[in-house]
Design a protein that fits this description.
By secondary structure, this protein is mostly helical. The chain has a single domain, classed as Fe(II) trafficking protein YggX (YggX-like, Orthogonal Bundle), CATH 1.10.3880.10. It is 47% helix and 9% strand. The protein is built from three helices and two strands, in the order E-E-H-H-H. Strand 1 and strand 2 form a beta hairpin. The longest helix has 17 residues. The radius of gyration is 14 Å and the shape is globular. The protein starts with a strand and ends in a 14-residue tail after the last helix.
Length: 89
Amino acid sequence: MSQIIFCCKLQKEAEAMKKQPFPGPLGEKIFKNISQKAWDMWLAHQTMLINEYRLNLIDPQARAFLHEEMEKYFFGNGSEKPVGFSPRE
């Protein structure tokens, strides 16, 4: 049976992640406070950021940018979409 947590992002109870998504304090905080559904939503948002900003994940600045956006997405005022972004239909 899946564990249920109160998800800070969705503001409701939802299925917890099965394991910590990445190491470190932020990974632990996300694991304890963010549901699998909210994590999946972040992965889609992160992919959009990588593609729209043409981020090279080898670049430490790109990784730092994503880390900052992730923290804003889950625990801040949200991560903004790039200016002029319109999703494909």
